[in-house]
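My main concern about presentation is that the manuscript never shows what a single data entry looks like. An entry of this sort, consisting of the sequence and the corresponding C-alpha cells, reads as follows:
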Amino acid sequence: MEASTSKRTRPRRDADDGTDTVDEQRRQMALRHVRQYPDPVLRVPTDEVTEFDEELAALVERMASIMGDAHGIGLAAPQLGLRLRLFVYQPEEGMAEAVVNPKITWSSDETDLDEEGCLSLGDAVRVPVRRPVAVKVEAQTVSGKPKSWDLDDYYARVFQHEIDHLDGVLMIDRVEGDEFRSGAMALLRPRP
C-alpha cells in the first residue's frame, strides 16, 4: 500500500542539497521491482508459508527495503511476483515488520470510506475504498511464532489492503461508485 495522504503521511525530505532527487531515484529503482497492474500474479491467491528459515528472513529484509525505498506503508509478496502468504508493513515507530500467513478473525460492523493508493497501481490511481474500521488479525512472525494484532483506523486499513493482495484482490475491485472505478481503469489502461 502506498503511504496515504489523507489520514497519515510519511515524512518527506525537503532539502536543497539534492537529497530529494536522490530519494526519488531510489524510489524509482525500488518501484522497478514491484509488479504493476495488470500483471497476472497480482490476481492469484497465495500459498501458506511453511518454511521459517534464513531464506524467509532474507526475503523479509529485501521486501522491507523495497517498501521503504518506494515510500510504501505495506508490501505484499505477490507485488514482487511471489505466491507466498506474507507481507511487510511499517509501524509508526521502529523497524518494518513481517506478517506471515495472516487471517482476519474479526472485523467491525462499522465501516469507513477512505482513499487508498497502491504501489502496484502507480501514483495516479487513488480511489475511495470502504473497509471495516477495526479488525483482529492472527498470523505468524518471520520466525514462525504466533502473533495477533487488534487494529483500528489506519492500520486496520493497511492490513486489509495487504491481505487482499494475498487473496488476489486489488483495491480497484473494492471501489464504490462507477465514476471512480471507470476513472481508475482509464488511468490503468495502456496508452498507444
Notes: The helical segments are 19-31, 54-69, 153-166, 178-188. Residues 62 and 76 are 12 Å apart (CA to CA). The domain at 19-188 is CATH 3.90.45.10 (Peptide Deformylase). Confidence is low (pLDDT under 50) at residues 5-15.
